[in-house]
Design goal:
single chain, 283 residues, mainly alpha, 12 helices
């Protein structure tokens, strides 16, 4: 046996020693002219000859199980927090919708009373303005949960998944930064109204911190939900479950919007709509 082969057999790493699976794989691999001319290639571990994708799978399988379990627990905790805040946002969204209905009823009553009964509340503009402001902010969280915000997705749909998944996280991070500034300004506004005991100029003399506080509460809940969804999406991408993160963050498709519209008017079964949507997607 040549001297260099005896040295390799004695000094080979554990993964390539005789009797190991890596050594058997290396033996089964055909010997090329390059390997004959370069004795140093015999000292390479078996992972050196794998493709980058196969090497990543090997490293993933060799990762500590404790880290994977911890990552799964973090994902479950983030999902639980998201469901709790999303449930609160859903209730706030329904409250905002009923607030708009009450605004319409109040305006109708005030107009009719002014015309036929000879009196007016003289507070229609102020009350409906407050209801409109807090109603919009209270509906933001539920709109994010249902992925109903306007998204410019002309380019992102043509990107590969490896690029598309981080782009969804980037868009959500940008939204969180913007809403963070808005929430900071809203909190400062409420604090200033409390400091000066500010009221409106209508006959009601409503303390401004009340409508401003309701408006701020909706923005803060929206910010908290955005941060939780960002954390959950990032954990899913790190865990190699980017498809789940995309399902949580991507804009709604035409099939989903059509199915929702048909379900709202009661002309189709949601299960049939889901099946139809799946067929269209497969096509």
């Amino acid at each position: 046996m040549p001297t260099w082969r005896r040295c390799v057999s004695a000094c080979a790493p554990p993964s390539c020693r005789p009797g190991s699976s890596a050594a058997a794989s290396a033996v089964a691999r055909p010997t090329t002219g390059w390997s004959r001319r370069s004795p140093a290639s015999a000292t390479k571990p078996a992972e050196f000859f794998l493709s980058p994708r196969e090497r990543g799978e090997v490293l993933k399988s060799q990762a500590p199980k404790g880290n994977v379990a911890m990552l799964d627990r973090l994902i479950v905790a983030a999902a639980l927090c998201r469901r709790l805040v999303a449930g609160l946002g859903k209730g706030m969204g329904y409250a905002a919708g009923w607030g708009f209905i009450l605004c319409a009823a109040f305006i109708t009553f005030d107009v009719l009373a002014r015309r036929f009964l000879g009196f007016s509340s003289q507070a229609t503009t102020e009350l409906t303005g407050y209801a409109l402001a807090f109603g919009i902010s209270w509906a933001l969280a539920h709109t994010l949960t249902t992925r109903a915000h306007v998204r410019i997705d002309v380019l992102i749909n043509y990107l590969p998944p490896r690029v598309r998944h981080p782009m969804h996280l980037l868009s959500l991070a940008a939204l969180a930064v913007f809403i963070g500034f808005v929430a900071k300004g809203a909190l400062d506004l409420v604090d200033e109204s409390l400091l000066f005991n500010a009221t409106d100029i209508s006959v009601l003399r409503t303390p401004l911190w009340i409508p401003q506080g309701l408006w701020t509460f909706g923005i803060v809940v929206f910010l908290v939900l955005t941060l939780i969804m960002l954390a959950q999406g990032a954990l899913l991408v790190i865990a190699g479950r980017g498809a789940e993160a995309e399902a949580l963050l991507h804009a709604r498709t035409y099939d989903e919007e059509a199915a929702e519209a048909l379900e709202a008017v009661g002309t189709s079964d949601p299960e049939d709509n889901a099946a139809t949507s799946g067929k269209e997607t497969s096509r």
